[in-house]
Amino acid sequence: MIDALGQIDLANPDHYVEGVPFEWFDRLRHEHPVVWHPEQPPNRGFWAITRHDDLTAVHMDWETFSSEIGAVGLEELDEEQLQIRNSMLETDPPRHTQMRKICSKRFSARGVGVYEDWIRDVARGVLDRALVSDEPFDFVSEISRELPIRFLCSIFTVPQDDAPALIEWGDQMIANQDPDLSAAVVDREDTEEYRLLPFRSPTARKVFAYADRQRDLRLADPADDVIAALVAAQNEGALNEREYHNYFALLLIAGNETTRHTISSGMLALAEHPDQLELLQDEPDLIPRAVEEILRWATPVMHFRRTATRDVELRGQRIKAGDKVVTWYISANRDEGVFPDPYRFDVTRTPNDHVTFGPGGPHFCLGAHLARLETKILFQELLPRLRSIEILGPPERIRSDFVNGIKRMPVRINPS
Ligand code: HEM
Questions:
Q1: Which has the higher per-residue pLDDT, 132 or 16?
Q2: What percentage of the chain exceeds 90 in pLDDT?
Q3: Which of 366, 373, 379, 402 should be mutated for ligand 1, with most atoms under 8 A from CB?
Q4: CATH no. for residue 224?
Q5: What is the CA(299)–ligand 1 centre distance, in A?
Q6: Could you give the count of Cα atoms lying within 13 Å of 234 in the half-sphere of its Cβ?
Q7: Which H or E run contains 326?
Q8: 171, pLDDT greater than 80
Q9: For atom 21 of ligand 1, which residue has the closest CA?
Q10: Which among 48, 170, 205, 260 is least surrounded, fewest beta carbons within 10 Å?
């Protein structure tokens, strides 16, 4: 079916390097909203789901569209890999509910709200350092990368000095298709020996060793933090060794890079839409609403996958039990049926029913409150300090069909 669509190949990371191929997603939404998309062997292909309401239907019906019987990414895993690599993301209720409960309170609005003043202080410190002069600098490394990881160190209660290593490890794992960031590029090198590690990445071993050291520290000296909650769950038998490792790695990765890309994309969008920047500077009360538009615009995670547990029909297409079903958030967030004029960046957009944290269902992003809070505070602190911002060259994008991210963005900021 997709042959009729010519060049469209959503599973090739090269097609995202110059920018998201939005015209392909537009075409699929209009002409083939549920379509079988072939893949390079050994993968067998997937159903591409591109409309907002279909994404929601798939994610809400977890009994038909399981996270557990296959992986949640495009990579096809055998039973052994699934057993060893799975985290909360790759489970269905009731097991998923038990696992999520281990730290859900800590990531609730109230749980993260207690850190608000602390986050603001960190944001001010980061901006003080970055905005010392009007010399050009890389916005990603100096600003957007700093805040999420510093906060993660705080809720993990690990030394802030560990931040650079945690950033590097997270990048190597999640950006496993980008030779600039990862030593084992999954679609270019033989990564067979890493097939049992998350993201097929050798870096996972470093993260696991770090998780072990942190567990030893908690056992020697009890603390009240996220890692202690994971360690307690393991002691009580709610997590086994492998699940402890994978949970740790999931939090590290999920909490680090996604928020970074949101902040970078948000800054780029505001620089490209000076009227919107000016509006926010004049009316800072609009910033929380602007954060929702920034999240929609940025869509740092472009898709997730489910696997059909039974034969089912969706928009007239017959999906068979065992088929991969890939839900493209990046497309749903530009669905004109839900977002009038979807390619207009409008910080006053309301309602803004974006699916950046998932379209609902059991796996809705655990860190959504945290990501919103960090992004809000960063822009509340940054915008009053800006007289103007110049983007000095094309932002460099991560080579990935999964993460929609900017790795470098040279800027000059004229402080106000
Ligand atoms: C803008 C930043 C972020 C974005 C775009 C994002 C996006 C997502 C998405 C799309 C999902 C899957 C939703 C689904 O399948 O329905 C997810 C799940 C998850 N996110 Fe985030 N996330 C962000 C920040 C965070 C942060 C700060 C954390 C905290 C450490 C976090 C932790 C998680 C976890 C643990 C899951 C798995 C939840 C589950 O399986 O129940 N995320 N996120």
A1: 16
A2: 79
A3: 366
A4: 1.10.630.10
A5: 12
A6: 21
A7: strand 324-328
A8: yes
A9: 365
A10: 205
CA distances from 102 to 115, 226, 233 (A): 19, 9, 7
pLDDT tens digits, residue range 334-390? 999 999 999 999 999 999 999 999 999 999 999 999 999 999 999 999 999 998 899
Give the domain range for residue 365: 2-415
Provide the angle, in degrees to the nearest 10, between the axes of the packed helices 241-254 and 163-174: 100
Q: Write the residue with the smallest CA distance to atom 20 of ligand 1.
A: 365
The residue whose C-alpha atom lies closest to atom 17 belonging to ligand 1 is: 365
- Number of domains, the chain: 1
The string of pLDDT tens digits covering residues 59-84 is: 999 999 999 999 899 988 888 888 88
Peptide bond into 94 cis (omega under 30): yes
For 193-245, the pLDDT digits (tens) are 778 777 788 899 999 999 999 999 999 998 899 999 999 999 999 999 999 99
CA-nearest residue for atom 27, ligand 1, is: 255
